[in-house]
Design a protein that fits this description.
Layout lengths: L6 H13 L13 H15 L14 H10 L26 H18 L6 E3 L3 E3 L1 H18 L3
Antiparallel strand pairs: 1-2
Helix pairs in contact: 1-5, 2-4, 2-5
């Protein structure tokens, strides 16, 4: 099971991230490649508690949803709405210089990995309270999902 806790899995994501071009065509969704890169950065900022994101209302128990999202052998579907605070068309960080934005994602990913033990029990806005392992799994899956969105 891939996770940011595994160096090979992290290296894979970074390699794929570096292949994304600012003019890459999306396979689904509304974001451009530069917006996607900033969305990844904002999501890592959320995990690091550098960006506040309100708790979402969901129709399922969070524990069940968390297990399905993080551990069921399914790829995340396209078209899932994100929190406005990390939505680049709403309150998310706007793209600046693409290469610098990509580098920022790498820095923030490393910060999440370095500080992951402090995340134990911290709330995700949709999935609720998560363990350190859950956060590192989420970080991998979320990044993978958006890289696949742009064919990376």
């Amino acid at each position: 099971m891939k996770t940011l806790a595994q160096p090979a899995d992290r290296e894979e994501l970074v390699r794929r991230l570096r292949t994304v071009r600012p003019d890459a065509a999306r396979r689904w969704g509304r974001m451009s490649a530069p917006q996607m890169v900033c969305h990844l950065a904002d999501a890592f900022r959320m995990a690091l508690r550098h960006k506040a994101v309100a708790l979402s209302t969901i129709p399922l128990p969070r524990a069940i949803l968390r297990w399905v999202v993080l551990y069921a052998p399914l790829r995340w579907p396209s078209g899932i709405a994100t929190s406005p605070e990390i939505d680049q068309t709403a309150g998310g960080t706007p793209p600046a210089e693409f290469t610098a934005d990509v580098a920022q994602v790498e820095v923030l990913m490393e910060a999440v990995i370095a500080q992951a033990k402090t995340f134990d029990g911290q709330r995700h806005p949709v999935l609720g309270r998560m363990s350190t392992a859950d956060w590192l799994r989420w970080g991998y899956l979320h990044t993978d999902h958006h890289l696949r969105q742009f064919g990376a």
